[in-house]
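re: that complex we talked abt at group meeting.

here r the seqs, copy pasted straight from the sheet so there may be weird spacing, ignore it
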Amino acid sequence: MRPRIYAAVGFLLLTWFSTGSVLRAQAPVQEAAPDLDPYALVEKALDLTRSRSSHSKMSMTISRPTWQRTSSLVAWTRGREDSLIRFTAPAKDAGNALLKQGDRMWTYNPKLNRNIRLPSSMMSQSWAGSDFSYNDLSRSDKYLRHYELSLQEVTLSDGDARGGQQRVFTIDAVPKEDAPVVWGKERMVIREDFVMLEVTYFDQSMVPVKRLVSLEIGELGGRTMATAMRMDNLEEPDTFTEVRYQDIDFDLPLEDRLFTVFALQSGQTP
Amino acid sequence: MKLLFQLSIRNLLRNKRRNAMLLVAIAVAVAGVNASNTLLRGYQYGMLESAINNLTGHVKVMAEGYVDDPNVKHSFQLNSEQLPQLPVGMVVGWADRLRVPAVIMSERETRGIELVGVDPAKESISFIGEAKIEGEFLQGADDGRVLVGKELARQLQTAVGRRLVLIAQGADGLNRERGYRIAGTYDAEGTGLEKNYVFVGLNSLQALLETEAVTELSVRVDREEQRLPAKSALRAAFPDLQVKDWRELDPQVAEMFKFADASLFIWFFLMMGALTFGLVNSLIAAVMERVKELGMMRALGMQNSTVLVQVVLESIILMTVGVVLGTGISLLIYWSIADGIDLSAYAEGAEMVGVSSILQPVLLSEDVFLVAVMSIILGILASFYPAWRVIKIRPLDALRR
Amino acid sequence: MTQTLSLPVPTKASKGDTGLTWRLAWRNLWRNPRRTWLTAGGIAFASLLVTLSMSLQQGSYDAMVSSATGFYLGQAQINHVLYEEEGKLEQTVAPADELRRSLEQVPGLHVAPRAQVFALASVGQRSFGAAVVGVDFEVEQKLVSFFDRVTQGRLPVDEGEVLVGEALARNLGAQLGDELVLLGTGKEGGIGALALTIAGLYDSGRPELDRSLVFTHLASVQNGFGLGDEVHAMVLGFDEIEALAPNLPRLSRGLPDNAELRTWQQLLPEVVQSIELDRISAVLFYGSILVLVTFSVVNTFIMIIFERTREFGMLLALGTRPGIIMRQVQAEALMMWLVGTAIGLLLSNLLVGWAAVQGIPLGMMEEMAAQYYMPSRLYPAISLYAMSLAPLVLLVGTQLAAFFVTLRVRRLKPVEALRAE
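got the structure back, here u go
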């Protein structure tokens, strides 16, 4: 048993990517320029990927040296605390779901027709064999409490379709002394418009262990966000997990009872 | 009496070769028994030490239900006033600890372990107080760092100075997690302990779990027998709690301990048994050679009892010299192996039978004394038969020989 | 004073009569019965003690190995080469069925396949990490005693049932009949899940196993976690453990490329080592006893030589070569050894024979015995080695003893010797 511990900014980050449609529409790039306070920058990056609620469809591909496996998923989120992810394809995995409610997580399996509460000791295990752990999927911005952030450098991005360049900020997040974080450091690369381009996870001797990279950035659900991301295992060749969004809706009305254990089991969809 | 003594010595010297051989045999037997006793005792006490050092101590106080379910809810408050007054010198030390199961995580691995909150100053009574530390020992009960076994650090792929995340269940049943830096790694000469125990400052752990209680109080006494009075005193002082001694907590080791005592006796008798044949042979021969002489002395009025005493005395002198020689040799042997015999090539096997990988021989003066005394008694008994044989012969027949 | 000669007078007639040496040796022995009996007694004591101990010792080692291998790990295992170190789900041995059938061709060999997956075990609201092991219960029972330790209920009869350790059941708050859910990751990603009814609880005596291992049918695990015709271990056991070593080459030959065969010595190094440690201490023990008895023999012969100095002197004066005298004494030593060893071996064989049938109960050490892989009764091993080593050592010892003591004879000056008492 060799669990892989990946405390990535995982799915919640993916689902919460957004530049904030209102802000975007009203403000030019310059005004969205963040302060040089790294905390504010990161918080805004995280905030901008969140919305009051979201509903998305995506595909996940797990890749290994000898095999590859693609599945389809749907996900709902509400606020910072609640989310529900369900597999829709392939048939073998369809119906399997994961519910996060505040600090707690449950997993559901249709064959067993059972909800299982995840104990803390299992949180570092890999979810569905991917390079994301349950921890990754449960991360909330409370985590910012546990880090010291510092701005390392500012560069310019390549020109985009409209020829504009944006500033790109590299920020190091070092966990505080007694933070419940195993990493030595997390290095985040955030674009001026708050899109998270890359997060690299370092062990305590500063060896990079894994990296979450935004492969494609585009418009989806009315926002500019990363539409494809990859979590790379830097210690093993050809080992990574890719997630691609097909569709996403923000700020739709969601019922409270969607994020309950009952809903998890009964397979309710709004 | 002095005359008898001189007579005996003269007789002994008459047969230098034979008696020299006998002396060597006695010395070898005694040395052999003593030397192997030190090893046997070393094994026995090594086992005892391991059991006690393994955080058990001689006597332990715990809350009801803790043994079956080592949860922080089975804990108790301890004030120093509650400790019973025990005679000076009986208690070598005591340590209160908060011990709970926990999960420890590094960047790459997760393991289930036992997290032990300790006051490092008190831990001279357990293995951790004597273990080799790489890095630093915990500095006090407030130290918010951890001490991790060398083997566990290897499995977690971590090292001194790095942080690990620990998850444990608090007093309210909810999990708590926190990062802890590794102050040092310890080498306990046995991967079992190293893989299992992670030490942290007691106050620091209590703060994390939001409790002021401890789960155990371990007491170490000066001599093993003192565990009984210590146990009664502790039972009186803590009527609501479970107080057990190491024999109850570790019945298997207790059995082996008793078994070792029995082995010492068996071994002695077997060795001495082998010696006896030659001894008796020699004594009879010695006596039979002097049939004529003894016959003459008896004819001249020497009492039979005096003859008996003289023969026995001869045996005693022989035995005593042999015992002294043998004891001397065994002391030499003991001093040459006193540093301990290195069993690290057999580490897993040693761990399985409960000893550390260095076998430290133990020389108990009671053992040596007992061997000496019993050997001499054996010598006395062995000489009865020859003496009796000689007395049976009528002086007149003796003279005719 | 009349004195029978202890040696043949060298006449032409007696020169060719080797039987005479022995007859005389025998007669000389009995000139002093008490001394002979005591010396032979010592030899008997030593040979009895050492041969008996060695038989028991070997018997206990055999028992320990049998128990240890028969507990759970088996006499040998076939695993993927990386499995011992890394233990990953995809490190399997395949094709399992074919391999199993070809191994079963070996006479007396039982082959038990096992597939093991780490999963989350859950009953009701509580869950714990555990390892679910898929086995073939029927074959397992021929190989290991583990599945005889069912304390409640019974072994799973079909794929929907599971056997759970008592400690884990307690932690989960589970009882017989409850549903145990196992959730893990399948071999190539995806979710692996099983819902099984708890058919029985076991207590192996080792809490670290009880707390983490649950057992069900092999097919359940293979199907539930996306394994095909694959297993993580083929556990091997012969009816007679002695058959393992000679069959090793044959077993190693049929293996797939990425699989390796490990014997119990590699699986259980602690057993190998504790046997070694015990052997070493036994050697010290036996050595001491044998040395002591040899000393007594030396002593005896010193007395013999001393007693017959006059006689030897006379013989030397008559022209007997010292070598002849020495040979005669050696013959006496041999006879003494024979008498002692015969008695010792007789008693020893009787006792060993009796114990081999009855067994020696270990009494209160039984629980402890279980922990150290010992069975509840100890049977001695019937071994030529055990029976012959001590007598042979004693033979050499007594012959050397007689030899060195008798060397003096060479230096005897006949005139002085004749004057001796």
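couple things i noticed - Residues 70 and 100 of chain B are 6 Å apart (CA to CA). Chain B touches chain A at residues 103, 105-110, 112, 144, 158-159, 161-165, 167, 175, 177-181 (CB under 8 Å).
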